[in-house]
Amino acid sequence: MTTIQRIWRLRNRLIRLSGTKCQDCGLVTYPPKAACPKCGSRNLIEIELPRKGEVLTYTILNVPIKGFEQYAPLIIAIIKLGDAKVLAQLTDVKPEEVRVGMKVQATIRRTAPTLDGVVPYVVKFKPIKGGKISSEEERAELATA
Fold first, then answer.
1. For residues 137 and 143, what is the distance between their CA atoms, to the nearest angstrom?
2. What gap in Å lies between CA 129 and CA 87, rounded to an integer?
3. 125 with 106: CB under 8 angstroms?
């Protein structure tokens, strides 16, 4: 059962963009992991991911799963945030406007209610107006491979 208290305890996972970085092989993962999926090491540190990135690929679900009908068409993208790749929903954009390479930024939005009626908030991504990253520092965040 999902309760308000459970969502409160999980709020950092739901709305922060934190990942883990392996101190042995350097792999950055999102969401945070207990062990590195590449080398198996447990020598990980938690890191904050950039809130701006770029769309690597996307898909458009015109017939979304139960509970997400109000969001149709549902746009799901893989977004590059520094060294991490994040699977997330795009918002505030029409399907025909989405492009690979589009610059996006994290935002907090409501998501579909849980089975017991609780409406959690999660990280989604919206386009950056003009599609340009505004500062050299933010460009550097995207440039890391």
1. 10
2. 21
3. yes
